[in-house]
């Protein structure tokens, strides 16, 4: 008895199992209209297998779409005992049987109603897109887009024309003001073509962008050209999307770079503050001169930023690529070979900074050049001569030659100015000393203390060399002080009636007029005659 009751149960389970396996193995045949899958059929019907049935249903649906007066609301559903029929007017579109419902969780009636809803919705959309009315609407929309594009291009052209006129008027007004002040304005004729070219290129780029953005909109209006719209938008959207994604992924590295830069920046600020304080004398370091403060700060700043770049380099985008590494190596080699002289001048500038041979404002003699230092940087030194000639001297040249600084001890010890005259042996040297010292004391720019002094530097064949030495604290006025000193020497010697015969003094004076201006001679002075004694 038990076997009698268990057998139907076993058969029922096998039936459900076979049905489940059929559902799993049978994926169904899709009903596709205009590349859109409406639904799937899983079982054949009558003499048609599932594939043939799907083809028949597809042909009938396409036939409905080709009908001019198709109305999706005219689709009807009729249910009887064995079939549910979906029809359009008197034409059968498809029939749904109980076997179709066995592949779903719905009964036959509900499954047929579901198919009817899908057909009305999908076919209605397709018909609307393909109808003459919709085509007319699409054409009108495309015409509107074209008109809008033309209006935008016209507006861009007008805007750039207005902008060009505004720039020209503003430029001409500024030129008129500069011309009124005497400034040269001839370069305006060279600037205007450049401005016109820039505006023309900007206008052209904006028009190209407008046209490019209008094309996807036009393609999207018509269903058949929608893929082209997506393609054109992809050319813009995809790179922007890639950039945005890359930027988001790069944010952690960017934060690391920001932290490294911020720390380095404030360390540089701290070093600059300390250097300023040392330069201004707020505090001092033994053996470290105040004028070293800012050059040392500049060196430390360069080293800190170089170290910062080395630390940041691995976090830069593309730093691990072979191309990036090759470019950096190429630039390094190019810099090494192309800047040997510049590196030499930079090293010489650093050495000169810590040697302290001169500073800005000092009167110096560099080689054969004498003048005031007006600029001193890491590469060159600029000197302005007393003739207002600005001479640029490479630091390596200065380091390889001798340097004379007239200013370094002028304020403390005093700079000694000296000049030499030659006087004959018949003049008392005491008188010559007194005249030279009085001439120095009467010269503007000569210090009263220490007192001027005279050195007899040579006893020549026909004269004696007297060198007057006088102190000054104004080395930048050396030329003017020398000129005044020479004038005073002439005046003092003329007042004393002493001739300055340089470079030689002749001992045969008979019959010759004394070499002193007439204003300094006595009123009764007469030129002596020749003294001739007859031989016995």
TrEMBL record:
GO terms for molecular function: mechanosensitive monoatomic ion channel activity. Residues 298-339 form the Mechanosensitive ion channel transmembrane helices 2/3 domain. The keyword Cell membrane applies. Residues 1-20 form the signal peptide. GO terms for cellular component: plasma membrane. Keywords: Cell membrane, Membrane, Signal, Transmembrane, Transmembrane helix. Gene3D superfamilies: 1.10.287.1260, 2.30.30.60, 3.30.70.100. It comes from the Bacteria. Belongs to the MscS (TC 1.A.23) family. This is Transmembrane ion channel.
């Amino acid at each position: 008895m038990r076997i009698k009751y268990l057998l139907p149960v076993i058969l029922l389970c096998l039936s459900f199992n076979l049905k489940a396996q059929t559902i799993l193995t049978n994926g169904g045949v899709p009903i596709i209209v205009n590349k859109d899958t409406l639904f799937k059929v899983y079982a054949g019907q009558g003499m048609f297998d599932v594939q043939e049935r799907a083809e028949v249903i597809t042909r009938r649906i396409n036939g409905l779409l080709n009908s001019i007066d198709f109305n999706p609301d005219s689709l009807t559903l009729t249910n009887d005992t064995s079939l549910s029929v979906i029809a359009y007017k008197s034409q059968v579109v498809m029939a749904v049987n109980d076997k179709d419902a066995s592949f779903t969780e719905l009964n036959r009636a509900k499954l047929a109603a579901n198919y009817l809803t899908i057909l009305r919705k999908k076919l209605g959309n397709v018909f609307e897109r393909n109808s003459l009315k919709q085509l007319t609407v699409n054409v009108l929309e495309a015409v509107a887009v074209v008109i809008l594009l033309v209006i935008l291009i016209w507006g861009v052209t007008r805007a750039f024309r207005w902008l060009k006129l505004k720039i020209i008027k503003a430029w001409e007004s500024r030129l008129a003001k500069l011309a009124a002040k005497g400034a040269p304005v001839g370069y305006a004729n060279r600037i205007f073509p450049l401005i016109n070219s820039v505006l023309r290129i900007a206008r052209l780029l904006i028009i190209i962008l407008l046209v490019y953005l209008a094309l996807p909109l036009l393609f999207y209006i018509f269903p058949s050209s929608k893929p082209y719209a997506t393609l054109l938008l992809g050319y813009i959207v995809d790179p922007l999307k890639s950039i945005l994604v890359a930027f988001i992924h790069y944010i952690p590295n960017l934060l690391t770079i920001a932290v490294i830069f911020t720390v380095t920046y404030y360390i540089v600020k701290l070093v600059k503050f300390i250097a300023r304080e040392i330069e201004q004398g707020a505090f001092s370091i033994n053996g470290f001169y105040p004028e070293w403060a800012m050059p040392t700060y500049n060196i430390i700043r360069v080293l800190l930023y170089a170290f910062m770049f080395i630390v940041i380099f691995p976090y830069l985008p593309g730093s691990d690529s072979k191309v990036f590494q090759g470019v950096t190596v190429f630039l390094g080699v190019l810099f090494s070979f192309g800047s040997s002289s510049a590196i030499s001048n930079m090293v010489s500038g650093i050495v000169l900074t810590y040697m302290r041979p001169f500073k800005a404002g000092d009167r110096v003699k560099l080689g054969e050049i004498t003048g005031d230092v007006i600029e001193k940087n890491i590469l060159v030194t600029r000197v302005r001569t007393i003739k207002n000639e600005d001479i640029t001297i490479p630091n390596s040249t200065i380091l390889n030659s001798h340097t004379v600084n007239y200013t370094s001890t002028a304020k403390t010890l005093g700079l000694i100015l000296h000049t030499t005259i030659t006087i004959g042996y018949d003049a008392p040297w005491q008188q010559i000393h007194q005249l030279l010292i009085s001439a120095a004391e009467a010269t503007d720019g000569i210090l009263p203390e220490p007192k001027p002094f005279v050195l007899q530097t040579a006893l020549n064949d026909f004269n004696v060399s007297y060198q007057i030495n006088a102190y000054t604290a104004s080395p930048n006025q050396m030329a003017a002080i020398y000129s005044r000193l020479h004038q005073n020497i002439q005046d003092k010697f003329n007042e004393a009636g002493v001739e300055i015969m340089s470079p030689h003094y002749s001992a045969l004076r008979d019959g010759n007029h004394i070499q002193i201006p007439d204003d300094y001679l006595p009123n009764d002075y007469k030129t002596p005659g020749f003294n001739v004694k007859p031989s016995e």
